[in-house]
Amino acid sequence: MVAPFALPFGTMTTNRPRTLCIDIGGSGIKSMVLDPEGTPLVERQRLATPRPASPQAVLETIAQLAGEMGSFDRVSVGFPGVVDQGVVRTGVNLDGTWAGMPLAQAVSDLTGKPCRAANDADIQGYGAIEGLGVEMMITLGTGMGAAIFSDGKLVPNLELGHHPLAEGQSYEELLGQAALDRLGLEAWQGWLQRAIDTILPIWNPRVLYIGGGNARHLPGALPAKVQRVKNVAGILGGIRLWQNPS
Ligand code: BGC
After folding, report:
1. Where are the beta strands (DSSP E) in 71-219?
2. Are strands 45-48 and 28-34 parallel, antiparallel or unpaired?
3. Which one of 72, 150, 214, 242 is least enclosed by Cβ atoms within 10 Å?
C-alpha cells in the first residue's frame, strides 16, 4: 500500500500530482500514469524497445509514450542498469553508449516535467515491499535485477545479476532470457532453485520477492519466504521514488 502524499496547502485537486512512470526493459518500454496514492489513471502502454537501444532511440520511444498518457506533473523512469543520481553508469542489455547519460535530465527536458530515474529492480522492489525488516527483490527478464531494502530503505544498485552463481557463470548468465532460451525451462528452473537456495541463507531477507516477465515460469511450490510479484510492480514502484531521496 503506497502512503498518500502531503499536498501543498491550497491544493484542492484530489488526484495530483500525477506521476508518469516509465519502465525501460530489454524487450519493451512500458508506461502508466498514477495518482498520488498509486492508483493507475490510464491503461498501461507498451512499445518494443528499439534496436539498437541507443539513448536517442529510447528517448524517442519515451516521447511517443508520454504523448499518449494525458496530463502528468512529474516522471519516474526505471532503467536496466546502474543509475547514480539520475545519471546512467551501465546498461549492458541496451547498446554500449549509455554510460554517463544524464537520463533524468534528458527525460525532464523532453517532457518539461521534473524527472527521477533509478535502477529498474530498485523501482520494482519499491512497488513490492512492505517496509519491514530486510526485504529483497529479484527480477527475471532479459537480465536479472536485484534490490535490497532494510525497513523500507533501499541500498541502491545491487548488481547481484553479475555476481558468479555457479560454474564460473553469473546469475544473469544462468537466469536471463538468453539462458532460458538456451537451457530450456527445466534446467532454468533448476538454476533458479539454486539461486534461491544461495540467496536466502546469505542475505537472510524476511521476504524474497521475485518479479519480471519470466517470474511466470516459477515452479508452483515456493519456499515460504519467497513471493511472486506481478510485473506491474515495476511501474507502480515509480511513485515511491518521489517519497524517497533520488
Ligand atoms: C543490469 C541490472 C538490471 C537488470 C534487470 C542487469 O543486466 O545490470 O542493473 O537491474 O539487468 O534489467
Report:
1. 74-79, 83-84, 87-88, 115-119, 134-140, 144-150, 153-155, 164-166, 169-170, 207-211
2. antiparallel
3. 150
Determine the pLDDT at residue 243: 86
- Nearest CA, atom 8, ligand 1: 81
- The C-alpha atoms of residue 85 and residue 156 are separated, in whole angstroms, by 10
pLDDT in the model for residue 230: 85
Pocket test for ligand 1, best of 92, 123, 138 (most atoms within 8 A of CB): 92
What's the angle, vertex CA 116, arms to CA 110 and CA 118, rounded to 5?
Answer: 120
C-alpha cell at 28: 519493451
Task: In the chain, list all ranges with CATH 3.30.420.40.
Answer: 19-123, 130-233
pLDDT number for residue 13: 54
Q: In angstroms, what is the span from residue 80 Cα to ligand 1's centroid?
A: 5
Ligand 1 first shell, C-beta below 6 A: 80-82, 90, 92-93, 119-121, 139, 141, 143-145, 159, 161-162, 172
Indicate the fold that domain 130-233 takes in CATH: Nucleotidyltransferase; domain 5 (3.30.420)
**Ligand 1, atom nearest to 157 Cα:** 9
Which CATH number fits the domain 19-123, given the four candidates 1.10.760.10, 3.30.420.40, 3.40.50.12370, 3.30.559.10? 3.30.420.40
